[in-house]
């Protein structure tokens, strides 16, 4: 899947994004500076980049060769880089905050998504390259410093912490954010709009900061106020929330998709203006991703079932306990459809590029976790979950890591149990539910 995503020969140590944002849907001048370390001798190297107009590329201050083919930007430094050296790449370009791509699955549109008074971004799965030149692969994480200038009547936000807000030439404002923890490019958030920053506190004094279009502060207040309860519920299941802060960015768009951008989940306004049950499902889903997919990053896109399966699992578990549908009934329905989903969308851990974000990765993958819980029992399952989020906190892990860890914690080899669930063409029997039936494939 996505064989050209990510690049070898170097490691990104930090991105610095300097954006001179102007107005909705209006291209603006941007500079991305990348501090990196070569892991081998390099006469040239690649970045993933799909921004619309490239101006110049320098390496260590000297003009470098730059050529583009598809989403690959090949950089040829004036003199080759030795192995193990830190170096600085500076790319200047024009960013187009209306540049969007489309997928025919749960992602729908991605890249820059315009709003009436600004922009939000949906980088998942590989749209970060529309925003900045990057090592755009879910396993490759680096911290990011965001420096965004805006007109005075706009607010810019990004992952992590607001470091400063100062005046800039031309009656503008400069916003500086630090992601604090490294993040995968698919989890970047960077939004500009007529926002109010609404601060509150979660369990243990965790700083919460919602970012809300001014006109939506009151209408969304009730559901946004549920976040501390969601945190408390998930922390009881999983242990401490993995980052320094959290918040909800209310998306003023018609794109009905939520996204787990790190420390600042993007939730479309429709989700916060509908029923409480649906709002909480989406909010708990994105919050659960902060543990699964954000703090513990994906090793590859084939591991997406781990993050989406867990997010859906906890979303449904929470919902059942708070007025929503029966978890078991939903899992029974997913079980019935599982052979069909295997045929249409691939087994949970065997997606292909076009079916990556289809139903198998959501309820179909929550079902694998449900089967595991039925097999090992609730107490052991909870120990597996806690071992996963604490053992791989701030790092990357894949499907084999999950199988190995589950086996270790359960004290039995679960390879023979989990592999058919994750890779087989036929759905295995559901432990504890001999009466559950898989519908024939059509
Ligand atoms: Zn999700």
TrEMBL record:
GO terms for biological process: peptide catabolic process; proteolysis. It is an enzyme of class 3 (hydrolase). Residues 14-186 form the Aminopeptidase N-like N-terminal domain. Its EC number is 3.4.11.2. It holds the Pfam family Peptidase_M1. Residues 230-421 form the Peptidase M1 membrane alanine aminopeptidase domain. GO terms for molecular function: alanyl aminopeptidase activity; metalloaminopeptidase activity; peptide binding; zinc ion binding. It comes from the Bacteria. Keywords: Aminopeptidase, Hydrolase, Metal-binding, Metalloprotease, Protease, Zinc. It catalyses: Release of an N-terminal amino acid, Xaa-|-Yaa- from a peptide, amide or arylamide. Xaa is preferably Ala, but may be most amino acids including Pro (slow action). When a terminal hydrophobic residue is followed by a prolyl residue, the two may be released as an intact Xaa-Pro dipeptide. Its cofactor is Zn(2+). GO terms for cellular component: cytoplasm; extracellular space; membrane. PANTHER family: PROTEASE M1 ZINC METALLOPROTEASE, PUROMYCIN-SENSITIVE AMINOPEPTIDASE-RELATED. Belongs to the peptidase M1 family. This is Aminopeptidase N. It comes from Streptomyces alboniger. The lineage of its organism: Bacteria, Bacillati, Actinomycetota, Actinomycetes, Kitasatosporales.
């Amino acid at each position: 899947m996505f064989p050209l995503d990510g690049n070898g020969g170097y490691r990104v140590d930090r991105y610095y994004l300097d954006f001179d944002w102007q107005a909705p849907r209006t291209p603006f001048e941007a500079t991305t500076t990348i501090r990196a370390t070569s892991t081998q001798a390099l006469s040239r190297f690649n970045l993933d980049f799909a921004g619309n107009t490239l101006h110049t590329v320098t390496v260590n201050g000297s003009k470098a060769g730059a050529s583009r083919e598809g989403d690959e930007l090949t950089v040829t430094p004036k003199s080759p880089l030795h192995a193990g050296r830190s170096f600085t790449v500076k790319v200047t370009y024009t960013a187009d905050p209306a540049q969007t791509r489309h997928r025919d699955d749960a992602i729908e549109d991605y890249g820059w998504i315009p709003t009436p008074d600004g922009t939000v971004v949906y980088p998942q799965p590989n749209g970060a390259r529309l925003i900045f030149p990057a090592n755009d692969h879910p396993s490759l994480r680096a911290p990011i410093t965001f420096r965004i200038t805006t007109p005075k009547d706009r607010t810019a936000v990004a992952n992590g912490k607001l470091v400063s807000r100062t005046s800039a030439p031309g009656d503008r404002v400069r916003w500086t954010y630090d992601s604090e923890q490294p993040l995968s490019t698919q989890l970047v958030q960077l939004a500009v709009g007529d926002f109010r920053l609404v601060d509150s506190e979660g369990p243990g004094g965790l700083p919460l900061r919602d970012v809300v279009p001014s006109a939506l502060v009151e209408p969304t207040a009730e559901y946004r106020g549920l976040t501390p309860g969601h945190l408390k519920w998930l922390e009881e299941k999983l242990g401490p929330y993995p980052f320094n802060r959290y918040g909800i960015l209310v998306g003023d768009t018609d794109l009905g998709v939520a996204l787990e951008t790190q420390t600042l989940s993007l939730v479309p306004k429709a989700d916060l203006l509908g029923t409480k049950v649906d709002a909480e499902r989406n909010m708990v889903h994105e919050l659960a991703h902060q543990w699964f997919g954000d703090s513990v990053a994906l090793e590859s896109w084939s591991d997406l079932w781990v993050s989406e399966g867990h997010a859906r699992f906890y979303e449904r578990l929470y919902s059942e306990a708070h007025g929503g549908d029966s978890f078991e009934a939903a899992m029974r329905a997913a079980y019935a459809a599982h052979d069909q989903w295997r045929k249409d969308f691939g087994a949970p851990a065997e997606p292909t590029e076009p079916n990556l974000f289809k139903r198998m990765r959501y309820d179909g993958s929550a079902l694998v976790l449900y089967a595991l819980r039925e097999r090992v029992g609730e107490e052991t399952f909870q120990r597996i979950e806690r071992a996963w989020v604490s053992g791989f906190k701030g790092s990357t892990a894949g499907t084999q890591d999950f199988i190995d860890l589950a086996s270790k914690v359960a004290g039995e080899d679960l390879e023979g149990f989990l592999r058919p669930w994750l890779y087989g063409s036929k759905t295995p029997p559901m432990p504890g539910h001999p009466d559950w039936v898989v519908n024939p494939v059509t």
